[in-house]
Amino acid sequence: MILTGPEIAKQVGSGRITVAPFDNSRCTTNSYDLALGRRLALYQDEVLDPRREPAYELRDIPDDGYLLAPGDFVLAETAEQIGSDNYVPLIHAKSGTARLGLFVHVTADLIDLGFVGCSTLQLYATLPVRIWPGMLIAQVTFWVPYGPIELYQGKYQHADGPQVSRSYQDHPGVANG
């Protein structure tokens, strides 16, 4: 079961959903619009290996925006901290963003119960597109879980800023450097 926009606002008010900062005008029929934060993470390695910690560079999006060329992949942050111990958040691109040729969070949309933090957005440009801090780029929906709940305590908990892959932490005994 998906929550409607008014129910999302009600659950934020009761503390059962975290969206901070929260702007009631960004509640839609059944989602909440998320804004792009200021920070990006860009991988520096020519080949990424999930068994090794990746090299990356953090950059701020300038006030005049950041131009993504076709084929560019960057990690970005949501401006909001989101999460819930009671509902399962799923992040999706806004349709207007997708129509600009920008794939947003296509392959990792499920947010674990109990996660609270800034979410990392995977951005992949199919066309030249300029991104701006504060632009409404994605939307989050909240779903009612069924069954026993175990809260997330993983490696991305309380994320602040775009988080690069930490897959290397899932490979014990492998050199990480």
TrEMBL record:
The terms under GO molecular function for this entry are: dCTP deaminase activity
- EC? 3.5.4.13
A Pfam family matched by this chain, by name? Answer: DCD
Q: Which UniProt keywords apply?
A: Hydrolase, Nucleotide metabolism
What superkingdom does the record give?
Bacteria
BP GO annotations:
dUTP biosynthetic process; nucleobase-containing small molecule interconversion
Query: Any keyword Hydrolase?
Result: yes
Write down the top EC class of this protein: hydrolase
Protein name as it appears in the record:
dCTP deaminase
Q: What organism is this sequence from?
A: Kitasatospora acidiphila
| Gene designation per UniProt | dcd
